[in-house]
From TrEMBL:
Entry's EC annotation: 4.2.1.20
Stated name of the protein: Tryptophan synthase beta chain
Pfam families: PALP
Signal peptide annotation: none
EC supergroup of this enzyme: lyase
Record family assignment: Belongs to the TrpB family.
CDD domains associated with the record: Trp-synth_B (cd06446)
Species this protein is from: Terrimonas rubra
Residues bearing the modification N6-(pyridoxal phosphate)lysine: 91
Amino acid sequence: MSSYKYPDAHGYYGRFGGAYIPEMLQKNVTELQAAYLEIMQDEAFQKELDRLLHDYAGRPTPLYLAERLGQQVGTTVYLKREDLCHTGAHKVNNTIGQILLAERLGKKRIIAETGAGQHGVATATVCALKGLECIVYMGEKDIQRQAPNVARMKMLGATVVPATSGSKTLKDATNEAIRDWINNPNDTHYIIGSVVGPHPYPDMVARFQSVISAEIKEQLKTKTGNELPTHVIACVGGGSNAAGAFYHFLDDAAVKLLAVEAAGCGVDSGKSAATSVLGRPGILHGSKSLLMQTEDGQVVEPHSISAGLDYPGIGPLHAHLFETGRATVLNATDEEALVAAFNLAKLEGIIPALESSHALAALQTQQWKPDDVVVVCLSGRGDKDMETYMARLENKL
Ligand SMILES: *Cc1c(COP(=O)(O)O)cnc(C)c1O
């Protein structure tokens, strides 16, 4: 039986993936392809990773039985509390893994791209932890929109470099980071923040995030005697929290995997980030995947109320899962996500990130059976979104 988990030797999941990179990056990427699995599977590496995930990031995160929410939707609902991770979301699982890998590769300088700043903060955090130089590329427009995260990165010792080309957002920041890597091939490691980019990044990031589903399995087994839920729901920007939440269930066909994309103002509104529905195969940032693009292949600027889902592509693993029908793609609008966020706050006393609220919104739109066991990946906490929530409270949104 073939496995959904692993790409082939060239980094392909079905027809998606690969490493479409300029000649100048070949050396860096080939080095990483050759080294990552051996390093990650090394016993001393695993031990150090486990220690930091436990003592620094705060793992394992709880699997919480949300009784009042479950009553509301008529089934059993568990929340995987990635919102309780250090720095407020799942992203630190990946940056801890990659900083240890960079260390093993002898790299002294770390670069990253960031949109809303969450990945930038998670990267700046682990660079401080390890005393490594950190340069974060961020669109000029995002720097203005996300002042608190820019301040966090600076306080953590990172240099934030504005990307001033194009739309001055995430896509442009990523282009700047790639350019930096080309110019600094020997001493620099590029920490990509999701299951996107050239092979081996999608596989490497999925493995670092897979701790989420490893814990879910163990925790469900303890709580219910059965390690398999009937459904796992996660939101998808690039797809890293979903990849992590799905990973150890990918080869259990009985577990239904529901990926929720941001429909923004509506899938057909022209203002959305519903990549799988609207996207066509194309190449972005080093891999072949589904991509929102115009007839002549120009990348379409996405829209979502949540900055973390505002990406025109998805990781190649997800494109493959959707194309083969292994995962089902749902979507939630800005409005549905807002309603779901306030609903969770009132019912369970948990203020979720706007991204995670898309996964919670899907809980409301699906039909459940009383004996279903549904796990929702609560990818992050809502502190960063209070400005949006305040606008809602003041009836301005
Ligand atoms: C960044 C982010 C996401 C989206 O990224 P994925 O790679 O799709 O997981 C989702 N939730 C939160 C809280 C985030 O910060």
